Amino acid sequence: MVFKPKLAFVTKQLELIKKQDLYRTLRYGTINGAYTVVNGKKLLNLSSNDYLGIPPTKLQLQQLQSSSRLVSGNDPSFRILEKKLAKHKSQEECLIFPTGYMANLGCISATVSKNDLILSDELNHASIIDACKLTNAKTVVFKHNNIDDLEEKVKRKGKRKFIVSEGIFSMDGDFAELPEITKIAERNNAITILDDAHGDFVVGKDGKGTADFFEVSKKIDVYVSSLSKALGSFGGYVVSQKNIIELCINRSKSFIYTSALPSTLVSYSIQRFDSNREKFRKKLQKNVRHIIHGLKSIGYQFESKTHIIPIIIGNEKEALDFGRYLYTKGIFAQPIRFPTVRRGQARIRLSVTAWLCKNQIEKALRVFELAAKKFSIV
Known about the structure:
By secondary structure, the chain is α/β, with parallel strands linked by helices. The protein is built from 14 helices and 13 strands. A seven-stranded mixed β-sheet has the order 4-10-9-8-7-5-6, with helices on both faces. The protein has a three-stranded antiparallel β-sheet with strand order 1-2-3, with no helix packed on it.
């Protein structure tokens, strides 16, 4: 992979860490009770956080014990999954975090410094908002998917400039304007960070995600994503060039100072990654088309063309009442209110899955037609 000059600062920061004797590397080992096996060598484990040492079952002993990955919790299964995920996103390296929230916190706080400028979409996830605060950098929020506003604000001063956006927005289900965003990034030498939690494994060729869907994969510098959405497992991950991942290993507090995922969850993610995902992805897309067409035929209005569909109610109490009505009719769809969305923008957030069959979708549409009349939504 060709090294990007705008990321040369990463090498300098790594050199400084090494000079200070603070550089960390990962060692892969398997925990077995009081011992850990590292590179084939059996060692008495005096670095475990399993203080009480209550005897677990054999399955738990092999797969559920955990510690910080930089201490003794770096099971070899992590390396297997990380290689698969890096290849999945056509990047050099990957780092798995316990959650997607922690992946955003760790990645952004590790790569952005005090004198930098962050351009963040106003509808970005709370984990991105919190991560930006941790950096102490100048954070400028641009209007949602407003390219003109981004174009104007990216000209503000900053040692380095970062543009951060979700790929598919979690509450509205709309796509980020990635073709235009990446053009702006190129013109302003800005680093792009894409949280693709809701697009990963769903859109793009073979489910490679939102950037692939828009054919701008090579223009994204850092990807953050989730193992707990479409993959149906647990955890989060960051993929980028090798130096960025090294910096995360050495600077991400949400990686360094927490226990790793239990290896049973890592193995489960590998199984699901290696499954026939394309079969289920095609069924999901079919279900999305069915539900969107059905809802719009009833009269519901929304912009989403994805598996996340917002039914905007507006008033918070009415959204609760709407949700309760759906519940009585056998439909579980959660009302979403402030502070997750802005005041006056309460909604029912629908998440379409491949679990649904045609008859179930038709039943849901009948209920939504009744609800639309009852609450005068359409």
